[in-house]
Amino acid sequence: MTAKHKRATDPADDPLPAEAQSAAGRPPGVLPPNATNTSGFHVAVPQRHHVESHPTGKRLTFLSLGALGIVYGDIGTSPLYALQQCFTSKTFAIAPTPANVYGILSLIVWLLVLVVAVKYIVFIMRADNRGEGGILALLALILQQERRSSDSKRRMLLVVLGLFGAALLYGDGIITPAISVLSAMEGLNVATPVSENVIVGLSVVILFALFTVQRFGTGRVGVMFGPIMALWFLTISALGIGEILQAPRILAALNPWHGVQFFLSNRHVAFLTLGAVVLAVTGAEALYADMGHFGRRPIRIAWFALVLPALLLNYMGQGALLLRDPSAVANPFYLLAPHAMLIPLVVLATMAAVIASQALISGAFSLTQQAVQLGYSPRVTVVHTSKSEAGQIFIPEINRMLMLGCLLLVITFKSSIALGAAYGIAVTGTMAITSILFYVVARGRWNWSLAHVLPITLVFLAVDLTLFAANVIKIENGGWVPIVIAIGVFTLMSTWKKGRNLLNQALHAGALPLDLFLGDVERRKPPRVPGTAVFMTSSNDGVPVVLLHHLKHNKVLHEQVILMSVVTHEVPEIKASERVSVEKLEHGFYRVTARYGFMEQPNVPEILQWARDAGIKAKTNETTFYLGRERIIIADGERKPGTRRAPDDAVLPHMARWRKKLFVVMSRNARSATEFFGIPPNRVVELGAQVEF
To answer: Considering the entire predicted model, what is its pTM?
Structure first.
């Protein structure tokens, strides 16, 4: 057993749970963010601000404009490549005949209506977890209601579906920046005779710069996202209108019968074409994921007032151009523009592509933060890039992963047409999983009748699974990329969750009940030293192992002992009145329980400030934090002396040996508890132990 002053590096060190936002308000005595309180601790976690449910006037306009920049960047740049992919894909060949142009445009139009407008805008956005959206927020919502169910297999299946849907989004987050920037830069081919290598090189430079500036935050440049995307949508609308006026007959594509005729005429090839048509709706999941930033109403207004009309006009314009000049299939988007406007259009398209990429990158940061708080990821470095907005965060580990993935895709595939084969599986897979989880929420939480929710879900799934099946065909030509990424991320998340369960059970096996411990303290009366000791624990029952080790080896107790637990609930935020509870025990002991939501960042100095208002006094120079640092040993035979062993396999869930090794690697590379929870590092004492499982 060792005791030393240093930072913990293993997520099992505290052992704080990975099950655990700042509250909108603060109780009396709690200082604002970035203020130093009277105890000397520095509270640096920004407070989250709720978006009002029914904004009006200028506020509604501001939020709607912001939604244009963040929510609709991905789907707004789809016209750069979606229609082109339908006719130039490497997995099938479709001639740009009038019948095919009408048919494909009809499919795009009605996918935008059914998938985005009806499914996501009307139905899915109703499934909010206290205002937050996204697949992990939806999963947390379901887990709340499933706690009342005794069907553990059903719960496990839903968790697996939710985690795999989240894992697919990481694949989307890697592919979207690559294909968006590549397709924008390919406009140079139309404007000037540049080589493919030049386009690839410029795309690499832009993406590298984009990921490099992430550490500075998006607060300053983010205010320009909305106006730039508004200009983008107005520009693509004007381009489309100009061509529609020359061939107004293209508006007949609004008739869904043209889509039906396209299938009747082309059959197998028409089915394969859906793998490219789906690129027109690839940003639909962002509507739901970003709901907590803007609210439902601004997102809906932005969609129906500007985004949907602009997309329809541009796609119709591209179709009209193909009716007039089938050779324009090489790049129907850029060929809409007059030659003199091509370079400015390339610049604007590149800016729009960067904004679309930024939205996916920020979404990956938020998704990772949720995963950490819900216990599906090791602790990572969460840097708050804004002093006032908690949602603006930067995670270096995820940023590096996304950057390497994007650069490799650009260098490997070299064109948006080739990369289009890799796009679609992640999006359609997540869409299908979202439909299933929506059904569970509608039935279990909203008590919708089966006759009401089943037909809706079946229609959603029919569309989602058809699109998914059409994209599965593209696996050989690049569709394997998002699948491999998703499997890798899912394996990491599920391994971490199960490994933490094993480790916690090992740590708490045979734990000493608190009343017995306090009784022993009263009998033995160990020496008490001045000051406060804070022992971090993941359980409200029993005595923390680190406290037992401290008393066993140091033979003393502080005058004031705090048993602190940080618990994450399956809701985005916890009310200020419910944040911290303090229970006074005997012999100078206190139990402090801090509750956080999965969108919040726990902060120990902030917790102590709350507890101080309840009567606990903890000054910086008189408080010591005791963390447990476990060295994990994988069992391979006879137990080593002095090593704690987990209960037998009849109690613990099974875990393959290779997954245990993976868990050990993840544990050793996780961010330290000291940094993650904002604990003053010079006040930390670690007590090390070996744990075998």
So the answer is: 0.79
